[in-house]
Amino acid sequence: MNLDPYRDPVLYDLEYAGHSLDIAWYTSLVGGVGGPVLELGCGTGRIALPLLRDGHEVVGVDVSQPMLDAMQTRLAAEPEAVQARASLHRADFRTLDLGRTFPTVLLPFNALHHCRDEAEVEALLASVRRHLSERGVFGLDCYLPDVSLYARDPEQRYEERVFRRPDTQEEIVSWERSWYDESTRVHHVQYIYRQSDGTEQTMQLDLRMWTHEELHAHLKAAGFTLLNEMADFEGTPMGPGALQSVLVLTA
Ligand SMILES: C[S@@+](CC[C@H](N)C(=O)[O-])C[C@H]1O[C@@H](n2cnc3c(N)ncnc32)[C@H](O)[C@@H]1O
Predict the structure, then answer these.
(1) How does pLDDT run across 200-237, given as a tens digit for each residue?
(2) CA 224, CA 137: separation in Å to the nearest integer?
């Protein structure tokens, strides 16, 4: 398991500060179904905190202590009533057994790609089943294979951006470079961060890719029934060429 991109939650939050469509979608999903919510791979609380503020009880599970610590810090700045609705657990979502079920289980923001083989996906989906109430709702999103990304020159840097770290006020320039390993079906994405003194820090995200057909075969084998699927968080219908799958299922 490569947790490299999660060792610096400040950079993680900066990297994804512009992502808000998925937050709106998950909060609307939970608003319709209701909590309590189990979020698998809750990270720094990007999605969990808005759910907590909306009045839902959220149990957040993550294997990365730095990410959980960052969420705890953000929680501490919330009103007591919000804090009281949250509980955090450090655990592997594939082997998790909380001994309770939830009307809503979420696996947001590509966490599925952390499963490297069939057995790991099966274990994760069995864990979701274990924690999902009867007729409960399972919401998740993941990428689908994108050949245009895999054609990128692995030596070249793409997507230059400039950030300012809120903790040190330091200006940071970032790039991405990536390559796809056909034999393992892993898309390796390196985030390169150049500090103001010129030093660089690299974090590597390894995403095991699954085809649309494989994804659905796994979900079906795990006993899930599809309620809705879209090609993005804007509601584009699923179809050929989709690069993302946003799914709602029940058991
Ligand atoms: C892309 S982040 C998503 C975080 C958060 N849900 C969000 O939307 O910002 C994926 C999270 O899954 C966690 N994770 C990866 N493998 C895990 C595992 N086996 N068990 C639990 N958490 C895991 C990582 O530590 C990371 O915080």
Answers:
(1) 989 999 999 999 999 999 999 999 999 999 999 999 99
(2) 10
CA nearest ligand 1 atom 6, residue: 42
Distance 68 CA to ligand 1 centre (A): 10
Query: Which residue type does 9 have?
Result: P
Q: Confidence class of residue 177 from pLDDT cuts 50, 70 and 90?
A: very high
How high is the pLDDT of residue 7? 83
The atom of ligand 1 lying closest to the CA of 93 is 20
Residue 1 pLDDT > 70: no
Q: Supply φ then ψ for residue 210, to 5 degrees.
A: -125, 140
Q: Whose CA is nearest to atom 18 of ligand 1?
A: 92
Domain ranges of the chain: 2-144+211-250, 147-208
Q: What is the amino acid identity at position 217? A: A
Q: Is 21 in a helix, a strand, or coil?
A: helix
**1: amino acid identity, one letter:** M
Backbone φ, ψ for residue 155 (5° rounding):
-85, -15
Neighbours of 97 (CB within 10 A): 9
Which ranges of 16-58 does DSSP label H, i.e. alpha helix?
21-33, 48-53
What's the whole-model pTM score? 0.95
Sign, Cα dihedral of 127, 38, 189, 228? positive
CATH of domain 2-144+211-250: 3.40.50.150
